[in-house]
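[Q] Does anyone have a clean structure-token version of this?
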Amino acid sequence: MRHHFEALRKKRANHVPLSPLSFLRRAECLHGVRTAVIYGDIRRTWAETAARIRAVAGGLVELGVQKGDTVSVLSPNIPELFELHFALPLTGGVLNTLNTRLEPETIAYILDHADTKLVIVDRELVPLLSKAFELLGRALPVVEIADPVTEGETLGGPTYEALTGAAPLPVELPADEWDAIALNYTSGTSGRPKGVVYHHRGAYLMALGTGTAWQVPPYPVYLSVVPMFHCNGWGHPWLMAMLGATVVFTRVPAADRILEAIRSHGVTHFGAAPIVLQMLAEAESDAAHFDPAIRVLTAGAPPPPTVLEKTRAMGFDVMQVYGLTETYGHISQCLWQDDWDDLDPAEQAELQAQQGIAFPMVEEVTVIDRSTGAAVTRNGTAQGEIAIRGNTVMAGYYKDTKATAEAFEEGWFWSGDGAVMHENGYIQIRDRLKDVIISGGENISSVEVEAVLYRHDAVQAAAVVAMPHEKWGEVPCAFVELREGAEATSDDIIAFCREHLAGFKAPKAVAFETLPKTSTGKIQKFQLRERAKSKGSA
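[A] Here you go.
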């Protein structure tokens, strides 16, 4: 009888809140003697790291941090920021990692909007925080990370190391898995950044899903390259505790430091934006091939196929993933298919640049025609908007019910990314919807034009935006950053594009400059659009 099933209710024994804090408890018990952290001369085991985390949590409570309090952290990728991904949730507080490359005005805005109670700051970044406080009109309590590898200023706050002397907190899970664990702000490529609220349940499932999709074995050696201020490093800090990983830090993500760390410590896995992969390919002058291959996730912008070709030749097994701040990071993957093995490298790279299929912890990632509400035809040409549904979608935007409601219309999270779906169910981005160039009634994908530009030997980076045109409405305008020592003219670039594209898709104007980028490698097209407006012509 049905009522016999309905009588079985959730109990403490069979229903436990999901939280990545359980991974810390597991790491301390199971992986205790294994190396958890490598940073310069620092080596710490998981037992030592867990003890520090619990003590730091106790120290934060002594400073008055309570459940639901936002604590902002301004720090590069170093062990202290890694530890705070567990220590702050242990207190019940909410971790707000600040983008270290933001201007003081935006940091001041975030501190105010986030209702920050305490700021933990690396001393090298104290001048930036001080300017933000001036613009905020008030100073907030601070704790200072005194990293011995660099010098910095002080605001007179207690040091992070002093917190490690406090009475440690036990590792206890939250009463409700829907409790906020992190508050991450969107990259702000246009307008004010929005505060994206993550909960414990989503963070836990993100780690599990990533480990499965990336097929990460126990005890990997993981290089911390993805900024932990960006989607909490795509959830990788929590995943690494679950797997008993060794996490290697370089503080500065410079090509020489990354390559040296890979060789010195036997790195097996890392994540990085395409711009970082390009930087590594160009720095690797001795053409060394890493063997066994190093597993790499890349995201942030569709990677140019030329970059994928170069890194594959280096021994990097790169998988393109796709996601947004609002989805805890990556939620789809371009999983390699066996029938790609016999293709030439250029064809393989083209396929690798797709955004692929949903991660296992995501219920659905699809492409919908907003005008009809139906999924697009799987033919690689019908375009729609990527829509997402699953447990690793944000709780909502902090203090913005209107934007939250708009993002969740009709039971989906709407990405704002225009895409097609191929016959095999793989998604491929054609453009941010606002980046589609409509010229004489024809849609032009800026991503498609940019992929051609990256094939030009002189091009270091490229972005294409719409430029007003009296006859066609708008036409493509290319902004190009040349390689050091390389030369090219506008006519050269336009002629090259016309060799590989339909004439109407080729740029009608080219500007040479250093492109404005966010800290995660995304080109800030809103700045370029403003410049293109002034270039419009008949």
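[Q] Thanks! Anything notable?
[A] The longest strand covers residues 459-469.
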